[in-house]
Amino acid sequence: MSLRVYLSGEIHTDWRQQIVDGAHGLDVWFNAPVTDHAASDDCGVAILGAEDNKFWHDRKGALVNSIRTRKGIEEADVVVVRFGDKYKQWNAAFDAGMASALGKSLIILQPPEHDHALKEVDAAAMAVAREPKEVVDILRYVLEGTLPG
After folding, report:
1. The whole model's pTM is what?
2. Which InterPro entries match (predicted)?
């Protein structure tokens, strides 16, 4: 068995790399959104032309980014969504809802202080993890049936 895993959510820490490194040797293929914040924000206007109004600037970027996000979530077997401490990640909540609506296996990665705010998102998940290592342990268990040692 192999898994296609989409890593969505906050882009300000190395949680994705921790999961990729921890899953070394497992039959897992990872995909993610563009994590270069400036590129993600400005892709629409850089490709399609400048906008004077910030709303339209952001909308162009969101639409261009949604091509990659939609494809990544649709093709994934498992979607991991990370909610970090620093910013409110509305896009991450949207990705979690999209994954849930598509019937994807969903793992939420969040600190305990977000439990109340994310209770509906968490209720749609197959697991709520606190650390990237727990996500790796879930992937290993799903693929190999082994528990952490």
Report:
1. 0.96
2. YtoQ_family_protein
